[in-house]
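Extended Data, panel c. Modelled sequence:
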Amino acid sequence: MITAGIDIGSSALKMVIWESTGKILARYVGRAGYGSEARAREFCHSIGVHIDATVATGYGRGLIDWADRSVTELTCQVRWARQEVPAARTIIDIGGQDCKVIRISESGTLADFLLNDKCAAGTGRFLEVMAAALDVPVEELSGVPDGPSVSISSTCTVFAESEVMSAVAGGRNKQEVIRGINNAVASRVAALALRLGCVPDLVITGGVAQNARIVDAIASILSTRPVVPKEPQLTAAWGAALLAHDKFLSKREGSY
């Protein structure tokens, strides 16, 4: 059995084609926006195999009107964790425009969650804005060694950008500013997790999880070492593909 999971987020389109033997046949990560539906359809057709069921998720899931079902990212993240990290009890998902903290019950179901979507602080978009202010690729933010950092206290991205520019104009070392940016994201994400209650095992997903410095800072604040998947930006799409498998079985058994 082959299923597809399509995750159209605020900034990225992610897709997973999954085989019931446990193998990912194909994956895709690209920019979201106009044309996401067409790219999703083209990708699914390009695999050259029959897809038995498709589940869509993310902000743009309604665009995939040919999916068998659309579900929330929360449900997809929990389904992925139940398969890949069964000991997980907390997921921090740091996306392009929001950050989610998800609590998982002992039985592997969604227990509770908090969502920060009021501004870009603590998200991938925040990092993109700060990287642009420093005129560096966003990937460079994760490559700085340990050392002193600039304090960035503003919770508003616009004001934080002003703080960054003031630090640069004041002659602060660029690496110190980058450490301050990473620490600012980590502190805001960790604060959200502490509000909900961070129960080990902790998993960090989303594109920002690829920034090892932010992950390390979150781990330090929460006093726990998180699991970071090899492809953290794909977990919701992967979970969607797993749910498509579940629903296809239910349909075949007459209980869909």
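The first helix runs from residue 36 to 46. This feature is highlighted in the accompanying rendering.
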